[in-house]
DUF2185 domain-containing protein
Amino acid sequence: MSSENWPMRQDPESPVIISRSLVEDPSNLAFAVLDDDGDWFISDGNEFSEDMDLNRDAFGALPLRDAVELIPELTVLAGLPTGMAADWDPERRAWLLSSVADSDDDEEDLLVRAARLAAWTHPGSPLEEVQVSTELAEISTDPAAPARAVRQVVREADGSWLLVGFQVPEDEDFEVEALEMEHAVTLYPDVALVLSAAPGQVYDRPSAGDPWELVEG
């Protein structure tokens, strides 16, 4: 893969921690994590343990270039925000995104949290939980999959947030996933335009790219 066609934003030679079983059989893929430092961890389902010998047996390191050649499904995660995980669904050929929980290093977590709060330029908190309709938390590897975009931003009466995608029919029940606000805004930047919404307000738009309209509240 030439440097001109390199799809990821990280350096192709940057090291990736990867399950050794994936080198032998990439079909064992279970999830990937892009940590707060922008480093990739790709797993067959195993996580790090406190036993370093087990970790050395279970995981190795590869340049990102080699990991992408081994698991090309990673390329659709090129825009994944740091601090997020993506679970692989082999039947649907899609990733389901989630915000990564705190690590076991309390001091490091506090530093990361403080840096995120200091860098946040929008109303509210980057750490606030947001409910999103499920397709907004999915990234398909099918090039024919519909583009993901937010149709409706709801500020509930209790102050919580709900983002609804265009694939959700109006007035129908739908499933939701939880993301942190910073991750939701990084994935869908135009949501930032209505983060000043008051509790009880709803913003909508007829199609992606159209201006938001206050339709309730």
